[in-house]
């Protein structure tokens, strides 16, 4: 199951590269046909899409490596580094677009063949829209931060592309050439915000942030239901790294419980947790009754 998940994640990452190159080609053609700075900004963002898709594929392959002597907890955080890199590259692209927009304000361009260029850009945006939906849906299912970050970035690209198409159309209809660089500047600001959100989401994983509250409640309930024979579970801690969830806690049992009986309880809890979170890595510290804190998870 885990190998199948890794294979699916890698295929999606490869698909992102193919789609990214196709969209880049279409948007570059749209810019070449029109000379629009706003469409150039759209194309520049697509170069980032290709670069980050390559980075995501490399990170996913590194994250899939098994634990070793130097990395006893595995390589799962590699995907978060990819997502942070993506955020940085988005910000760099935004700054490049702002520079082009400033030049455009000083010398507003005359748009050539706007109809053909806009149609090509719409086709590129439709392809991007379909693929971002695939990445977000499948990335969440596979619990891959790199794929989800890539999908959210593409969604921002789609939204900004729709705005660009509408704005360039308005510039052509009204004859206000200054609208073209103005739109490019708005696209850049939107991209900056997108890059910041991608980076903050990824940094939370690098900082060993706990799992979402909803998931934490599921973990507590599962421990409570599966720990028959124990007294309580306390000091529950969680963190996530890519598809892997780390869970550790102290399990209090009656002082007369044998090692074998305590081990059986732990096995039962682990099996129940892995039904909920197949990629979970669980550590349970068994303690005698006098160590009870009368807090945490009460066993049903």
From TrEMBL:
Record carries keyword Acyltransferase: no
Residue span, Cation efflux protein cytoplasmic domain: 213-289
Record GO terms (molecular function): cadmium ion transmembrane transporter activity; ferrous iron transmembrane transporter activity; zinc efflux antiporter activity
InterPro entries membership: Cation_efflux, Cation_efflux_CTD, Cation_efflux_CTD_sf, Cation_efflux_TM, Cation_efflux_TMD_sf, CDF_Transporter
GO CC aspect terms: plasma membrane
Ranges where the Cation efflux protein transmembrane domain occurs: 16-207
One GO biological process term: intracellular zinc ion homeostasis
Transmembrane segments: 12-34, 46-64, 80-98, 110-133, 154-176
Membrane topology per record: Multi-pass membrane protein
Coiled-coil segments on the chain, per record: none
Keywords, ordered alphabetically: Cell membrane, Membrane, Transmembrane, Transmembrane helix, Transport
Gene3D superfamilies: Cation efflux protein transmembrane domain, Cation efflux protein, cytoplasmic domain
Source organism superkingdom: Bacteria
Principal location listed in the UniProt entry: membrane
Localization (cell): Cell membrane
Sequence similarity: Belongs to the cation diffusion facilitator (CDF) transporter (TC 2.A.4) family.
Stated name of the protein: Protein p34
Organism whose genome encodes this protein: Paracoccus aminovorans
